[in-house]
Amino acid sequence: MMSRVKNGMIAGVAATAVVSVLEAVNMFALKMFPAFPLIVAKMFGMTGNVAAGWALHIFMGIVILGTAFGLIYDRLPTKVPMAKGITFAVGAWVVLMIYVIMIVPGQRILPSGGFDIIAWMLATHAVYGAVLGSTFNRLLQRDKHHIHPAGAAPAH
Question: Which of these, 144, 133, 141, lies nearest to 66 by C-alpha position?
Answer without folding.
Answer: 133
